[in-house]
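DATA SHEET
Item: assembly model
Revision: 1
Owner: S.N.
Input lines:
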Amino acid sequence: MKAGTMLQVGIVGYGYWGPNLVRNFAELARCRVAAIADLDEGKLALAQRRFPSVRTSTDVNDLINDPTIDVIVIATPVRTHFKLAMAALKADKHVWLEKPMTETVAEARQLVDEAERRGKTLHVDHTFVYTGAVQKMGELIARGDLGDVLYYDSVRVNLGLFQHDVNVISDLAVHDFSILAYLLNQHPVAVSAAGVNHFPGTPENLAYITLFYDSGIIAHTSVNWLAPVKVRQVLVGGSKKMMIYDDLQNSEKLKVYDKGVSFTDDPKQIHQMRVGYRTGDMWAPATNETEALRTEGEHFLDCILEGKTSLTDGQLGLKVVEIIEAATASMQNRGRTIQIKNLEIIS
Amino acid sequence: MKAGTMLQVGIVGYGYWGPNLVRNFAELARCRVAAIADLDEGKLALAQRRFPSVRTSTDVNDLINDPTIDVIVIATPVRTHFKLAMAALKADKHVWLEKPMTETVAEARQLVDEAERRGKTLHVDHTFVYTGAVQKMGELIARGDLGDVLYYDSVRVNLGLFQHDVNVISDLAVHDFSILAYLLNQHPVAVSAAGVNHFPGTPENLAYITLFYDSGIIAHTSVNWLAPVKVRQVLVGGSKKMMIYDDLQNSEKLKVYDKGVSFTDDPKQIHQMRVGYRTGDMWAPATNETEALRTEGEHFLDCILEGKTSLTDGQLGLKVVEIIEAATASMQNRGRTIQIKNLEIIS
Amino acid sequence: MKAGTMLQVGIVGYGYWGPNLVRNFAELARCRVAAIADLDEGKLALAQRRFPSVRTSTDVNDLINDPTIDVIVIATPVRTHFKLAMAALKADKHVWLEKPMTETVAEARQLVDEAERRGKTLHVDHTFVYTGAVQKMGELIARGDLGDVLYYDSVRVNLGLFQHDVNVISDLAVHDFSILAYLLNQHPVAVSAAGVNHFPGTPENLAYITLFYDSGIIAHTSVNWLAPVKVRQVLVGGSKKMMIYDDLQNSEKLKVYDKGVSFTDDPKQIHQMRVGYRTGDMWAPATNETEALRTEGEHFLDCILEGKTSLTDGQLGLKVVEIIEAATASMQNRGRTIQIKNLEIIS
Amino acid sequence: MKAGTMLQVGIVGYGYWGPNLVRNFAELARCRVAAIADLDEGKLALAQRRFPSVRTSTDVNDLINDPTIDVIVIATPVRTHFKLAMAALKADKHVWLEKPMTETVAEARQLVDEAERRGKTLHVDHTFVYTGAVQKMGELIARGDLGDVLYYDSVRVNLGLFQHDVNVISDLAVHDFSILAYLLNQHPVAVSAAGVNHFPGTPENLAYITLFYDSGIIAHTSVNWLAPVKVRQVLVGGSKKMMIYDDLQNSEKLKVYDKGVSFTDDPKQIHQMRVGYRTGDMWAPATNETEALRTEGEHFLDCILEGKTSLTDGQLGLKVVEIIEAATASMQNRGRTIQIKNLEIIS
């Protein structure tokens, strides 16, 4: 598709996240929101009032079968992702899919294959990857400021909206899985997870997930829909520096600490403590404050119009689904360690 | 032993924690620090300067064999705990033992048996149990304010002193194990732990431990000697209320939240969200600000002089060692779930 | 005007605050936004796009002279307030006026008189008075929980938008003046203020204002457009309890401390310290989280339709202008104390 | 006095601060605590127990008249400072005097003259000047990192010990007066202060003080013994950078912000906002964590033994007393502006 084209966008799902997508796509210069589909006529009426020039429909096929539409954005419950995305790809549309990509690894793999076969952009909306803080973290790690990454430790808890179709891993830990894939460019080899549902008939509302990497890195995330306070905090330890990303701060979301330990090999000290501490400055770099969804939208259009590869493409989305699937299996077996690639049980 | 007696105390070990013990025992009305033993003459000289009237010795047997000494306080490396405590008990002394009680469950069990056989007080110094905040937490749980306890979630991280004889579980998670034993009066049935040592030849410096209870309670603790900031925070979720204990706050260490969820059974809502949220007041009760070690010292003397049972007696200390042993075994097997009672591997 | 009527609202000024006003009035059930006026056609185009059914005009007289319009909402620069509000009142409209009410006390007094003569509602938009936290503070003071109020101490600093027509007192301290009028139901008798403009040709960007009350209460506010961090914090000290209102907290904005001092009259202690401290619980009451502007809008309609008196009517707005005028005069004389009522210089 | 000499120190007053002084002087290599005087025999007994080799006396003259004593350290109530310090100087001792130096400017001036006449070191214990954070602040200002200093804004509040002989200005604001003298190397020309005593017969427990400098700098401090929380926070605004010093933080006490405003002179923008904002990185430099009193003690010995001039000598102490005297006078006249040099009333 040649640059300069005004892409026509159809958005499916106008529930919790849909209005944010419509607002952002409406403000992008290189595309136009042509149509919105939702099963709920009340929601469509709301959309119509805010965006009088956009066409609405309760039938998603009105969008998928419309040859003038170039892009389908899917913001529906996860159980419908595979079917809708596959239909859109088969109709030769570019696809923006909410996270998590699909319910199963097998489905995710089919979508990746289909998109590749047709040369279409398949983008998964892992929004956090596009925040200024995560982008800056990636930059610092990539240029070696942290030294070797040793661990990643995340806490995402709050008195949350209990989901009824997905568990807390799919809802919250998914953010860490995508950030990790972006920051480390490595795939974990095994996972051990524990979790519970405190209310019968509902999905797990609290979980602890540990990811193991061949490089020796360990990653952990605590997620909880039943906490009295909201926390969104990530620690990353490196051999040279360490950093903390607190997403709830209004400013200075990212802090980099020139702190660490060093070991002596002095044989005379072999029976004593051989660890030295280094406590230096702390530095909070200014980060890009553009709304992440805006940055992500521009990047998505670059992928379609300029042939770039999405930072959160189907491949990354697939890897995230692999981790969710393995973590959920482990959690349902009281922490049994699960190998990720082929989903075998290790122990 | 009849009330009114002035107990004679011998303290073994004048390293990191010993001076705090001497200072506190010196201030208690019902006892007197008679002697201090340490292998290091420099440390003894220091002790002598601060407490000119106390006898010092490099030979612990000078204390254990002294018939005028009633109590032996042991603040030495953990690998020496069993031998010293057993010798003291066999010499018919009451024993105060630093945490963790022993290196192995088997040793702990022998000490408990010996103390019981001889009718001596065997007390393990799990200091946190005696803080005003933990005491208040126990009170609130006991009188039902929280409803059913659902989870316990703790974070203890800092740029810590790397220990060379014990791992981070024995150093930091041990606090949670004793607090849990005190608060819940239940013993976990299984544990899954993950951890790493980032520096060859040193014990694990980072670990994540999940404890499973038959009642359905789940407990988790994150411990880390390699974090850029210090955190000491515990969340406890209950069916009625939730609480946060932040030990680093100068005031309002404990906050109780009147927050939670409630479920409807309305069949009409069966396909919708059935969860309601309750967001009420927060309350930070005043807590006893007496130094925990002082409170604990008085309690220890009550046990000896008035026949009370220590809140952190050998039985509790033994259970803590069981959890440490199981957690360490799980950690060394990448999270393999370990049953606690008989240390079998579940999966 | 009888209840049930649908009031027709005309809004003048669609700059920084205007869009918030339009959005809120548009959502109120008992009124309808009929027209928007602004000198800037670009802004009107923006308004038109968001609210296609609203009439727009660059001439404010189109609204003031329209007999179908019942209410004029004025969100223009303060130097235009008097003229526009007076014209609206003379056209027998109810008036909602942004803060500060007018540039001078004399103007404010004329508006109050005109509104009274015509039986129209004259409401000044001191939004903070309608926040859940300030309402709760008012409730606690009114029912005597704090005992006698002893002091009010506020800090409002940030790296702010430098205003070019008003100083930092009119921009930030004005919030404290209205909150104080609401909470205390007293008028200060004197003011001493200090301030500077750090950049030639601009209004004062930093000021410290102390208000003196006949009851002995002292109130102080620090306001600053040139601070590296944002602070919005109010302390209120009472003889029984004290409270802190931190508007930047996401939750627990208001905290009530059961702390204080008590004095002994024991003659034996006359040469010693006679003050005792009381340190009790802290309590963060749940507060109404409705958007303040929504609460205020409903209250304004109650005033018009049900004859209520506005909590922030012209009388309160006038008192706030008196304080601004006196404080600015004091500031321009390096803290010279100014009596408020008749603006005489005391010293 | 030649280097290498072991100075003999006599310490007068073993109340609140005295024990800290004894402990610190006892640890300095170049001096020896020879004697302690206090009127209270109980306190002397306490001192004797902790420091068995130190001579004690209830008569201060035993120290002042002892020819072997080189240094007199005075930590008694402020009303006794002048008499004791003058006696010590006349006995040819070097003097360390607690803050504030004296009750009156006249007394301070006499002490400065006497010390100069006799060539003795007269040092005032403004401890804060010797903290790592204040030293770092001084360094950053001196090397121009902040650009021109524009303002200094301090808050020191807590539920404090009500003093019965001095007001809250002498107790808390005194810290700011000494820090300002150290950082700015300028003397304020005028002061305006407001304050109250909420309890009859006690000194003022709450005060707001504004200092005016000829350079245009404005300094302000809020001090309060009746606040529900403890705050110790200083903001310093510069034309290039700004900084915050929070003394209650365990780490990162000092933060430097690369934030500010810049003005355009573009005539086309004359009717618009001409201010631009710069929001860059934040940086928390590592600061010296040595106990301030230790640093100060070494510096004091350098002054005596190496002829250095104390950073907080009698001249600085005198200037602080001038500000206290003027601020107290202003406070007792409801903020009346007072010129500092000759204590005339300006307005």
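QC remark: Residues 267-274, 342-347 of chain B have pLDDT under 50 and may be disordered.
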